[in-house]
Design a protein that fits this description.
Structural class: alpha+beta
CATH topology: STM4215-like
Oligomer: single chain
Largest sheet: 6 strands, mixed
Number of domains: 1
Order of helices and strands: HEEEEHEE
Strand content: 25-35%
Helix content: 10-25%
Radius of gyration: 17 Å
CATH architecture: 2-Layer Sandwich
Number of strands: 6
């Protein structure tokens, strides 16, 4: 279906859910947005938040109906755990899952866009966060990619 970004987003979430031992949810990282259950040692199960952004005009405005023009989608993954090394290991798995042999429905291959990291101590324990941005073209017919 032209301009349908949701099927590709669903593919991305499903792909990330194949990473063992990690919860995957959609949403923006905010210090008080998702508070994971914490044990007495201040540890919690690692999780990934995925924020999908609104599409932008792509690289290929066509000569036909604008609904068939390529669009550019972007997303940010926030990888969060109570241990810096574990967060970095999951970050590497996210990159592998999304960059190797994967294309979402009606989309092209994902490309890394940006990244940053920080430590969030606001809840009385440390949350180590690695954020990775990705972009990809969508609204592609299977014959055009």
């Amino acid at each position: 279906m032209p301009l349908a970004q949701t099927p590709g987003e669903d593919d991305i979430i499903a792909r990330l859910r194949t990473i063992p031992g990690v919860d995957v949810m959609e949403g923006e990282y905010t210090p008080d947005g998702y508070v994971p259950p914490v044990d007495s040692a201040g540890l919690f199960k690692p999780y990934i938040l995925v924020r999908f952004d609104a599409p932008q005009t792509g690289y290929d405005p066509g000569i036909a109906d604008p609904s068939w023009d390529t669009q550019r989608a972007s997303l940010v993954t926030y990888i969060v755990s109570p241990d810096d090394r574990v967060t970095r290991q999951i970050r590497d798995q996210v990159r592998e899952k999304l960059l190797i042999n994967f294309r979402p429905t009606d989309g092209g291959f994902l490309r890394p866009k940006s990244g940053f990291n920080f430590v969030d101590p606001d809840l009385g324990y440390h949350r180590y966060v690695q954020a990775i941005g990705f972009t990809y073209n969508f609204n592609l017919s299977p014959d055009s990619v």
